[in-house]
Amino acid sequence: MTLAMQKRIYEIIPGALIWTTLVLSVLFSFIRPLWMIYFIILFDLYWMLRILYYTPFLVASWIQYRRALKRNWQADAEREPGYDRIRHLIFLPTSREGVEVVRETLRVLSTAAYPASRIMIVLAGEARFRENFESVAASLIPEFKDKFLALWTTLHPADLPGEVRGKGSNLNWAGHEILSKVLSMGLKPEDVVVSSFDVDTLVHPQYLSNLTYLYLTVSDPAKSSYQPVALYNNNLWESPAPVRVAMFGTTFWLMTELARPEGMMTFSSHSMSLHMLIDVDFWQKDIVSEDSRIFLQGLVKYHGDYRVTPIHLPVSMDTVVTGGYWKSLFALYKQLRRWAWGAENFPFMAMAFSADKQMPFMTKVRWLFKQLEGAYTWATAPMLIFILGYLPFWVAPEQFRSFALFQNTPFTLEWLMRFSMVGLFLSAALALTLLPPRPKKLSRPYAYGIMILQWILLPVTFVLFGAIPAIDAQTRLMLGKSIIFQPSPKRK
């Protein structure tokens, strides 16, 4: 069997599992409704236990988050041996963002607790949007060039062979373009910490200080990526309620992962060592999910000896807002479908792990299972819980309706869902503690009342902006189709 055939089989597996589950759920609701009822009871019980299992991790992560906000990380970092030799290299890949978005990002970085004189910035533009990028660069370079150790620009050529349009190919080009400049400054790759940020990312004032402290104190720091808490607070109050619920859900998922980092990959804005990036030849240029893939490149390169170190400070980004309610929801769908396209990591992992004779077998199994199980439950759990779980009661033949199991199961499912509501109430409570400052135009009772009531939309959001985009992405992967990387709309 050729490598191409093996890759196609691995691409088919995630989608095939999903559609097998969905089709059999519908089929058995008609021909074996009692079997389906048993399955739904077990699945809902599993989901309730899963929520109860993850809830303490979310609370623990939130407590660490609150503690981290109060700590003077810059003072801690300065006390560590080796502080003076560390420098930061920050990539800001751009597309069509306006000058004010980029200016605010640079302003926040230049006024952080960590000295801007130790920070190198790369504005990575796209030739497809040359006019906009050159206008932004011309406005901002004179304003900020003397505040940082370096402020460079790169321009990624359009439609190079072997590339997929997107952030990964832009970062790959920018990394190769900048490397010689960094090395010419006499810096060692192991002393340069690289951050890949969305261009709208506003870091906490102590983020780079915290990152520096961790880089100087963890063992073998070049074999770790560093993941902060991702908040979508820049324009949260202006966002539609479904968008807010979806973005808070993403934040809470990430916080849960940060409490158990032995199985997590990097997501969105994060950091890593230049030494590792050189070892893996920078970001892959033919994939969409560059944020998680760069972690997997390190994992494969070091035969499983690579990890994520949590940073319990936030970086804040934009929610998708396009100027209209329905347009924002459509943009949210496309964003979540792009995130769900991370299923493309499964064939990469399966192929790479198969060829790697040094990675421990159980390490391979653990990572493959986590990737596959995560993609599977993302797509199927909302459908089974909120839609297909009730199908047997709607379509079952009359002879089954007198069965005690048939009559009692709805009450059983109702109680399971009530116990599962602990996750909903906790999410609503924690969300209030993560909100950005309230706009003055909104009264306190109205604003916070809406922020609580919006969680009623969770079941709808769970299906429309959870399961369906995940099914969409994994079905495309199964059929050998692709998606186009479309940057999420930012503030103007």
Mind explaining what this structure looks like?
The chain is of the alpha/beta class and 492 residues long. The protein folds into two domains: 3-61 and 369-478, no CATH class; 71-335, Spore Coat Polysaccharide Biosynthesis Protein SpsA, Chain A (Alpha-Beta Complex), CATH 3.90.550.10. The chain is built from 17 helices and eight strands. The strands form two sheets. It has a five-stranded mixed sheet with strand order 3-2-1-4-7, sandwiched between helices. Helix 5 links the parallel strand 2 and strand 3. Helix 2 (33-70) packs parallel to helix 15 (404-433). It is globular and about 80 Å long. The termini are far apart. The mean pLDDT is 91.
Defining key terms:
3-stranded mixed beta sheet, 17 helices, 492 residues, 8 strands, 5-stranded mixed beta sheet, 2 domains, Spore Coat Polysaccharide Biosynthesis Protein SpsA, Chain A, alpha/beta
- Per the principal axes of the C-alpha atoms, what is the gross shape? globular
Rg from alpha-carbon coordinates: 24 Å
The rounded distance between the terminal residues' Cα atoms is: 51 Å
* Biggest sheet details: 5 strands, mixed
Tell me the total number of β-strands.
8
CATH topology of the largest domain: Spore Coat Polysaccharide Biosynthesis Protein SpsA, Chain A
Task: Output the number of helix runs.
Answer: 17
